Amino acid sequence: MTSDSGRVWLVTGCDSGMGHHIAETALKNGDSVAATILAKGDTGPLSEKYGNRCRYYHLDVRDTAMVKEVVARAERDFGRIDVLMNNAGYGLHGALEETAEDEYRRLFDVNVFGLSEVTRAALPGMRARRAGRIINTASLAGFAGKMGLAFYCASKFAVAGLSEALAAEVGPLGIKVTVIEPGSFRTEFAGTSLAGARDIIDDYADTGGIFRKGIVAKNGLQPNDPAKLGDVIWTLSNIENPPMHLPIGEDSLLELLGKLEATRKDAEQWRELSSSTYFDDVKASA
Description:
This protein is an alpha/beta fold and 286 residues long. Helices cover 47% and strands 15% of the residues.
């Protein structure tokens, strides 16, 4: 099957939550979707509802060979990939010292390296057509560090930096990149999609420990609606000159603006110290 009308999306992490809603919004608007899920199987609620315009693919993004195979299958099935929505990922709470190597390496394998390999697999087709959109999911925690989420923040900061560099590399080739920074959404992020460090250290009870208790208590009470996020992504995918960064949710927007202002103030306050490393002759001629 090929798609001759509408665009073709590849959306990772469509088992539930944000990925499901993003895929459904694209389908409602007439596009086709290759939806990857961690569960095994090639059917699901969206393929049952939208028929051949949606196909499911089992994918563990940590498996590079599987990534290449699934992207190739999606391109054969639909003819191309116009929009890549890198959504697959999960959370990990725990202070840095509490988090073991096997825990944080697995997190990076999914959130950073899995995203990278899906992108690498989709890029040749986009380059050949000199067209494409890539939307990478970071987080508010990928712009402003949060206690109790040290390695999750690190993984999402990595996604943001990777996306900025990628945008500069592929922009001249007609491919547009945006990194989104969602705030707190009412999904399974604080439930089944959130892992916790095995080792708990009492000295972090008033920092990471407070976060751990708070995120569990607030599960199901988050302010943002994942169905509305689907509409935001749809709108974003149609903007001719999309933003490099897009905070999603007023909570994310306000914190992002606050950090930008605090960073500006720090830069101004410490301007003399920051600028003190030039050679004297370089500074004199600047």
